[in-house]
Fold this protein.
Amino acid sequence: MGTLAAYGLLLLAACLEAGGDALVRLGLHSDQRISRVGLFLTGAAVLFLYGLSVNAPPWDFGRLLGVYVTLFFVVAQLLNFFVFGAKPDLPILIGGALIVSGGLVMTVWRS
């Protein structure tokens, strides 16, 4: 698997994990039982797909999962803003800058 394909798969995995978590969160705060069950089941299915997508390829697990954490952080913050209406505060922005810079180091630094 090429590097670009691996990063694309990691981005997909980040979207699936953050999206599955968001569905479960929405289910926890739903007032309607049928809606809650549907959100839980959909969230569980999406999280299962996340597990398949992130673990199927034969890559250097430690290095690419480090990059994955960066992608997950960015996707989670976007979902938090657009789905839940929460704006990141200064500690999130500063910590996020550190996470993203760490991901960039792991991506571009060749041993």
Q: What stands out?
A: The chain has a mean pLDDT of 91.
